[in-house]
Amino acid sequence: MTRRWTSAARHLRSPRRPPRARLRPARPLPARPSSLDGLARRPLCRRDNQGVTVSAPFPLPPEAPLPELTLTPETAALAARLDAALPQTQCTRCGYPDCQGYARAMAAGAAPINQCPPGGAEGIRRLSALTGRPVIPLNPVNGREAPRAVAVIDESWCIGCTLCIKACPVDTIVGASKLMHTVIEADCTGCELCVPACPVDCISMVSVTGEATGWNAWSPLRADAARERYAFHRMRIDRDKRDNDQRLAEKAAHKLADLENQTLHTDPAIIERKRAVIEAALQRARAQRSGAEPDDEVGQ
What we know:
Blueprint: H1 7-12, E1 45-47, E2 53-55, H2 73-85, H3 99-107, H4 120-131, E3 149-153, H5 163-167, E4 173-174, E5 182-183, H6 194-197, E6 203-207, H7 220-257, H8 259-262, H9 268-290
Antiparallel strand pairs: 1-2, 3-6, 4-5
Helix pairs in contact: 2-3, 2-4, 7-9
């Protein structure tokens, strides 16, 4: 018996249903050669310039100190020479936020000269010549000397989350939110900080120097360019933070000036409580910009 459908029933229940959407099969994770291979995996953290422990997607020697350093003019000059001798990859494998921080620690005698895997054995010899310390092998806790690699994004899997852009210390990844990202290969330092930041595992490190490692795979010209890009990166981050803080402060001040018309509440007590909260937030923002300690927060 052939089933017949009325027009109304056909609209509600069609015998020709569209095929179900098929889930995309999970892609097997590729094996990536990395200069971080062989390191013991542990809860990852580092210390920032103020000594505050923050989470970070890279291994760090647990004994790596980051004391408050006070340099004399002589040690400051030595720190500048040591910084110029580093490859400027800004990979943080030395246990410090950047190459300059590691150079300052070496100049102050707070760090050994064998904590820079990108520089390799040649880098240790250069640092030894500047500091007068004996040449020692590279500390395996910080990583191993390996051929230089650059980051490559699988654009078909990129979701445009911008996390790799934020992780790159030299601004060599370009893209926008929810749009495809790509790496400027000529400017990539191979720091690998973007790899663990990617939530969909679409970034691979591809060797571009064959068997050459350390300074044989790098050059002073590239190091100088990376230093300049990192300096611009830090300037941009500070500028964006200042602009955002100023925008939020102006928005709060505008709301405070016309609070009665900016809220739906008519109870004077609620309005005054909101006013106190906004004033306290503005006071904390001003204190942070000036470096002073803010007063106690006003309870909401």
